[in-house]
Amino acid sequence: MSSPAEPDARLVASGAAKFFRRILPMLVLMLVINQMDRTNVGFIKEHVQVDIGVGAAAFGLGAGLFFVGYALFEVPSNMLLERVGARMWLTRIMISWGLVTVASAFVQNEVQFALARFLLGVCEAGFFPGVIYYFTKWLPDAYRGRANAVFLGGSATAYIVTGPISGALLEMHGVGDIAGWRWMFFFEGVVSVVVGALAIFVLRSRVEDAPWLTPEEKSALSAAVRRDAEARRSAGTVSRWRLLLDVRIVLLTIVFFAIGLTTAAITFWLPSLVGQIEGTSDFAVGLLSAIPWLFAVAAMYVLAKRTDGAPDRRPYLAGALVLSAVGAFLATVGGPWFGLVALVAAAIGVKCASTMFWPLVPQTLDVRVAAGGIALINSLGNLAGFFAPSLLGYIEESTGSTDLALYVFAAASLVVLCALPGLRRVREASPAAATERVGT
After folding, report:
1. What digits encode the pLDDT tens for the residues 173-189?
2. Is 162 helix (H, G, I), strand (E, B) or coil?
């Protein structure tokens, strides 16, 4: 019989496999819907401009305000998840963002559009980092890389299905004398509420709460999770706020911000680019917009398999950032068909970069600030989602072109490569080197 310090590997594997089968699919579905409800706005730019007079700059600002609300409430949301448990809190997040999405179908002007986007960010805050933190409570380090890859695959899958689904709903324009974009918000919001209500019957906050694990699996899996947590906790007792302001957080945030810039640019600009192809309907725009993300999903899984267990993911992360920069740049130099091909490369780059990035985060952070640290990186990094569409809208309205903004985003992906060497040095500089012990 295994001691608590060395749990039976077979029981740990069996327990983890049940988590992958029973809980991870629901989390992936929730993420797909989450990404759909935050990115579907990219398909309605021309529609809201005609219907309620939202100009390019106002649309970019409104689309970006989502990330302001998201950033402001991200850390508090993850702290509350730590207190009340993932089951209740993730369910609350999903139902509330679904209700705001439904309400978005009734906006009448620029101010209401901006307010709806801000409130959507407030309600969604904490979901993604909450799930990443949730993994640390359920899975030992050896299994979290695969869980992250599968979960992040849901993000890319969302981009694939958002286009066709949103495009099909936009084709309902005029049904009941209601604009298609209003139908889109309404139906996609209702789906969020329904799935959120179902999630409470699937999720379990702790290993001990899972009725489908045997007592032996519970004991072994819990021991493995505790062992990994103790290894990260062994660095010593330091101030929680001091750790949150550590240079590790700064470097990780900078890298994630650069990834977010190109992701947001593709998300909000791709439908407009595809719409320039002669003869495309709303549904065709949705289908064509899915192409870059189809390639991105395939590339993510190939890369995840290749790097599983790799001692250093930084070279792969660097290559992905370079690819995203090249793709974003090339999207400005040709017609819409060439731009679509270039954005295939950019999408592969940013999604592979995300796949390489997130497994580094929980390995880097002290377990005592994992929830807050992950949330802080995600919230500050996600401010790229405010900056990118706002800059795109402002430059488009001022110059008639978005090329300059895309150059800025491409340059950011290249400049941030300078931060990658520092990540390893900081990770190797254990806080235990500090002889002083600071209370929390």
Report:
1. 888 888 888 999 999 99
2. helix
